[in-house]
Write a structure and sequence with these properties.
Elements: H1 11-17, E1 43-48, H2 54-69, E2 73-78, H3 83-96, E3 100-103, H4 112-120, E4 125-128, E5 140-144, H5 146-160, E6 179-183, H6 191-209, E7 213-214, H7 222-225, H8 232-246, E8 253-257, H9 261-273, E9 286-287, H10 294-301, E10 307-310, H11 313-328, E11 350-353, E12 356-359, H12 363-368, H13 375-380
Parallel strand pairs: 1-2, 1-3, 3-4, 4-5, 5-11, 6-7, 6-8, 8-9
Antiparallel strand pairs: 10-12
Domain Periplasmic binding protein: 44-332
Keywords: Signal
Protein name: Multiple monosaccharide ABC transporter substrate-binding protein
Length: 383
Amino acid sequence: MYNRRIFMLGATATAAALGLAACGGEGAGSGGPDTDAAPSEQTVGVAMPTQTYERWVADGNNIKKGLEDKGFKVDMQYAEDDIPTQQQQIDQMVNSGVSVLLIASIDGASLSSQLDAAAAANIPVIAYDRLLTDNENVDFYVTFDNYKVGVNQANALMFGLGLLDEEFKPAGDAPKGPLNVELFAGSLDDNNAHLFWQGAIDTLQPYFDDGTLVVLSKQIDIEQAATQRWEQETAQKRMENLLTTHYNGGEELAGVLSPADPLSRGIINALQNAGLGPTIEEGLPVVTGQDAEIASIKLIADGVQSSTIFKDTRTLADQAILSAESILKGEEPEANDTETYDNGVKVVPSYLLPIQMVLESNYQEIMVDSGYYTPEQVESGQL
């Protein structure tokens, strides 16, 4: 498990991590950035995990448009959550001689041979939102503050349970507890899942320790709570099993920590099918989320899902493009974090973007007034 508190390395390691080794020197292949070339002569290879998640489609569209607007060629491939497919796609990009690789991995530890081949061909690599692990040939990382995502999910859960007030401070009229909650985590092969989990658990732990919150199933380890490939159906089945096994004798479930909106919707389906709700006001347990998918924003507007975390993929794409552009000019991309993201071999210099908690009280301002969704899309729950 990646723990934010053990990411600190010595000054020597940190300083070494700041260098972009793949950006300089002669490579073994024909790829890599020609810093004197015009954008129209440079191709950015973009490897994306899947089109089944709404957010990855938005990421891909934003990246492609932004790069093309700047004159770059783009080779973008989606692997549909199949690791061998993504490996083959990146191999093809390296062999074709792209100038830089932008990779949103399916499994961050599965691409070592591809990263080695990119380094041999003098092709810099930017990890996009998901950290590439166990390999030194990762030059930069653009992402959100994923530990803080977990903190905010935990705070959103406690706000929904009445333990925190609107300023996210202990509520004066907070319920005494114990309140039963269940915990869900993401896919173990995604480094972000560990950061979400750690941020949430660090925040919830005092409430577990004093008995205010209780995990009735006792499934409190990430391995027990994990959801392979972030699949909605897997989350729904696990929630159904938890209800059948631990909540069939009159026990009351107060809330569920869910790390992503598709999982949240699966969990909500299971809860409603068991006769709970259908809304929070009518007894549905509080369920958190992430990614501000339109179907979940509608659920929040309707008082069904309690919260989500908005990670604006427009700003993430913009930052990734700026980082790629800097590398293609022979410059070092701007980093605002050089200590946190240890990939197991090196600390990868990173740029972290802010996040926003979305609730029924503020979804209009954050999601609609900002132009991200239209009122009609929220009303229908569809793009």
